[in-house]
Every structure is written in structure tokens, then in C-alpha cells.
Amino acid sequence: EVQLVESGGGSVQAGGSLRLSCAVIGYPYRRYYVGWFREVAGEEREGLAVINDDGKTTYADSVKGRFTISRDNAKNTVYLQMSSLKPEDTALYYCALALGRTGTVDPRPYMYWGQGTQVTVSS
Question: What's the number of CA atoms in the CB half-sphere (13 Å) around residue 95?
Fold first, then answer.
């Protein structure tokens, strides 16, 4: 059974930082990409960043320069380092996995999703 387990969410003041982790458990193939997404109640899920199996990254304009996605293949873990956080970054953050080599921040190709971790940024 494939599982994605997020951790690292919490509450932080504006301007602060958080690092989210996404542990990939039970996925048998090496070539996959992982994306980070966020969702606010009543709004569409927003793609933030994706990292391919070769380490290539893509970011949404809303987080470019503030968020950094990285991957530790030995630990099967993907990270999202978030800096200069703003109140509008408050959301439920998800990681997701898709088979293939070239990632996208479009959520449609993703087959496996974590349960989400809440990030709250106060002003």
C-alpha cells in the first residue's frame, strides 16, 4: 500500500519559516515526481512546487523565491522549505505523487495523496 505522510505544519508569525516533510512509503518504482499543493476551504487546490526524480524543480509564481522543494531519495522523503511566510499562505498543505519523470503543478496527474498538514500564518 502506498502512503504519503506529511509532517511539519504548525503556526508561525508572518515572516517566519516552516519546513514540511513528505515521507513516501511503499511506492515500488524509482521514477516518480512529487508535488506540494495547498487548499483553503471553498477554493480550488493550488499547485505550489514539484520535483522530478532527477531533481529538476518547478514552482508556481505565488511561491517562487520563497519556497524551496527538495528531495532525499535515500530517505524517500520530499521537503518543502517555506520562508517569508504571509497570512495568505495559511492553508492545508498536501503532498502528492505521480508516476513519470516530468512533473507538473497541475493536480490532475497525481495518483497518491497525503492526508494534509495545516499551516497557519498570523499577522
Answer: 30
Is the model's pLDDT at 103 over the cut of 90? no
End-to-end CA separation in angstroms for the chain: 40
Report the pLDDT value the prediction gives residue 100, as an integer from 0 to 100: 80
DSSP summary character for residue 14: T
Q: Flag whether pLDDT at 101 surpasses 80.
A: no
pLDDT tens column, 48-58:
999 998 899 99
Is-contact 51 37, C-beta < 8 A? no
Residues 79/20, Cβ–Cβ less than 8 Å: yes
- Which grid coordinates are listed for 101? 519523470
DSSP string, 41-70: TTS--EEEEEE-TTS-EEE-TTTTTTEEEE
Q: Grid coordinates in use for 18?
A: 516552516
Contact 86, 50 (CB under 8 A): no
